[in-house]
């Protein structure tokens, strides 16, 4: 399947593909399944019947059993609609715009809201940082690093490949200093401040496979990982803390925190029962699951970044975590913000 072009806007995704030799004679619905692996057969059939799939120089709408032939061009249109709505216990969640923190030459620094992806992937085609700023600046935008979809906070983007490559190299070679704010359940005292150095890896025999396991620091299993943790506030059954990852493993902060007895608030994967994650994934989460999580996403926020040639960037706390801390812990957010800014500047400078 040869891609002729892709175009993304916050409301419409357009793509054009050329049918290749090995695809000659395929049914249209089976051909489309290659591009939409997360779509059900019924969703693909609806796209065809709604005229969102068009074979060049043929009348449309087509039928699912229409055949495609070598060198034909197939145009696919995907309007945003309800495709990326985020629901929590039956209620639609707000999806706010990212906040531009700084634009310095070809570097863009933004405060990414929760549930926004870095760039289009899977079924997430619209609520993406690169798509938003390409539409905003009418210019191609490149990602420099990636944040998990649920993780909010500082996201770096570039306006040209050279700048993206330069700063990506800084991330990959450990020249970027990072700070994350987190809210966690207090199940035991890990002895703040401390360094977590357990190694990490996936276990392909474990379900869900995305779960990252910890292994002893002197183990031959997994890959080395290092996170420093610092306590900000201990209140009721919760810790508010800062994490400073020294390596960049997948789920590193969440995995180390859970292993040391303080799983993140709202973490469906590392809360002690991974089947909760599967129920949310399959959209069959129970009332008890929602009550256990308390909030729709894990409470992790990229709050500070220091590039080798820049001052420290510090992001405001996200609206959803602020709301929870006010209503559940009755915290003075201004005082907390000042504490975070002071600690992060001292640590990253």
Question: Mind sketching the topology for me?
Answer:
Blueprint: E1 2-8, E2 12-18, H1 28-33, H2 41-49, E3 53-55, E4 73-79, E5 87-88, E6 91-92, E7 99-104, E8 107-112, H3 129-137, E9 142-143, E10 152-158, H4 161-172, E11 177-185, E12 194-196, E13 199-202, E14 212-215, E15 227-235, E16 238-245, H5 252-259, H6 275-281, H7 287-293, E17 300-306, E18 312-314, H8 319-329, H9 333-348
Parallel strand pairs: 10-17
Antiparallel strand pairs: 1-2, 2-4, 3-4, 5-6, 7-8, 8-10, 9-10, 11-16, 11-17, 12-15, 13-14, 15-16, 17-18
Outline the structure in words:
This protein is an alpha+beta fold. The protein folds into 3 domains: 78 residues, Structural Genomics Hypothetical 15.5 Kd Protein In mrcA-pckA Intergenic Region, Chain A; 87 residues, Pseudouridine synthase; 174 residues, Pseudouridine synthase, CATH 3.30.2350.10. It has 9 helices and 18 strands. The protein starts with a strand and ends with a helix. The mean pLDDT is 95.
Structural class: alpha+beta
Distance between the termini: 48 Å
Helical stretch tally = 9
> How many domains make up the 3D coordinates?
3
CATH class of the largest domain: Alpha Beta
Looking at CATH, the homologous superfamily of the largest domain is Pseudouridine synthase
Any idea what the shape is? globular
CA-atom Rg in angstroms = 22 Å
Strands, count: 18
Percent strand: 25-35%
Helical proportion? 10-25%
Regions with little confidence, pLDDT below 50 for 5+ residues: none
Q: CATH fold name of the largest domain, please? A: Pseudouridine synthase
Whole-number mean pLDDT: 95
Largest sheet report: 10 strands, mixed
SSE sequence, one letter per element: EEHHEEEEEEHEEHEEEEEEHHHEEHH
